[in-house]
What does this fold into?
Amino acid sequence: MKRIALLLAGACALAGCDPTTLTRSSGVDSPEISCLTRPGGGCSFDQSPLRVLPEPVTLPKRAYLFYPTAAPLNFVDSRGRGWVAPARTLTDGASIPPIFVSVVGDPTSPEFINAAAVHDAYCGVGNETGPRFQRARWEDVHLMFYDGLITGGAQPIVAKVMFAAVWMGGPRWPAPRDLISTQGPAATIGQTGYRSLDHVPTAERQARMRSAKRYIERENPPLPRLIAYLEMQERAMLRAYPRAPQSPASEYEEETPVTEPYGLLYPEDSGETAEPVIDPATGEPI
It folds into this structure.
């Protein structure tokens, strides 16, 4: 299994080994990826390939070892926004929610590592006390992860499947109130609000993720259409599994009602039941 632990094994067999360099693939160009076609350059990591310290960390209920980054890792996304994983950010090189590993597969390729490290700095387990943790909107953090995957060399379909996994099963949190006023609308392409899916049964979320994976592999939709599709899946789950009365919405949820899709104006799926889900491009059931 190709995880950070195995990438470290050879170097750390030597006494007093230095921070380890993790290799990655070259970028893959695609006309739909704005971060690779922006005038004056595209997305970039400034300390690539990622270097981690040979100090493995075991976290509760996590099957893989985590390693701290040896130096800050900076990234510029498709909207020109800067992100940073500070030194000693813990990462396992994947960032895929555990409930979706059986659906997505075990992500082991080195082109995922840089994106995972920056993503982990903002929402990864083990980094809760870090200076960047949840210091941006959850939607922007997951979009940044997609840009980072593409920049690292992931094929577009693979990047979209992994993006769908973190969008549907990754962490969500209320937008930092101080950032709402200082960043304004230009900081994000939309804001769906804080709608937790944690109460939805695991089997239901896995089934929805399997549908999303089939849709991506069949259609390879542009990212805006994919987000519209994921939001339809989300709405269907929330209709089928509304929040229990004994679990009232948070103060933030009361202040931030569900709005239009994330920066999109695709029509909603019809009907009051969770199935079927409609493809926003064709109008046909998925």
